[in-house]
Amino acid sequence: MVSATYDGFPGAVGVSRLSVYDWPTADGRPGGGTPHLHLTCSEGYVVTAGRGAVQTLTVSGFRETPLEPGTVAWFTPGTIHRLINEGGLDITVVMQNNGLPEAGDAVLTLPQDLLADREVYTDAVRIPADVPEAEQVAVARARRDLAVRRFLELREATEAGDPKPLAEFQRAAGELVRPLLDAWEQRWKDGAHAAASATQAQLGALRAQDVRHLAEATVTATGPTARGRFGMCGRLDVYAGI
Questions:
Q1: Mean pLDDT for back-to-back runs of 10 residues, the chain (242 residues)
Q2: Which pTM value belongs to this model?
Q3: Cystine design at 225: which of 50, 114, 170, 240 (Cβ 3.0–4.6 Å)?
Q4: At what angle do helices 133-159 and 118-125 cross, to 10 degrees?
Q5: Measured between alpha carbons, how far is 64 from 223 in angstroms, rounded to an integer?
């Protein structure tokens, strides 16, 4: 029998608060994040402060979407995205599958030789936790700049009508995450699938004039479990377990 209750965050999405990096970029923008894509998750931005843009690259081409307070923008798996900070850009990030984009479902646009092996890739993207913050900044910034340069190459090739570099990156990204898929599937079953199944059960119960699930109502509140963590696009306040 499908359970009629699900006590996780609505829709089993994850949220985080993001202050986009203000380090100048290799292509002359005043600040910005690290280009990357997600393979199984859509992601949304609710802009709460500042101004900027999100640059996206798909097989359909390049696009730059302006961001300002009140903007809500989202994109589907396979969209390479890069945040541009034009001043004080703060965003609430909404993610599918209990925040899986910040828990593994992300591949940075690094040079192709760093994507050929999962151990090599993991070493290339790691920001050490046991060093002074200034060293973490240096590592995060170097990682960002390396990914930006590859993003610009992929954009140039795509705009020139050459789909091969982007296709090669997508294939390499798929191979990198293959060892993680069993864990991701379980996360989906425990989250989004369970939430949707609970709604199905509730609809069935109401049709049968059964309201017993209403007696199981709960209220939950939480706060950040980590503040200022170095993320792909900026400093993160993370809400774990919602």
A1: 84 97 96 98 98 98 98 98 98 97 96 97 96 97 98 98 98 98 97 96 97 94 95 95 74
A2: 0.95
A3: 240
A4: 120
A5: 32
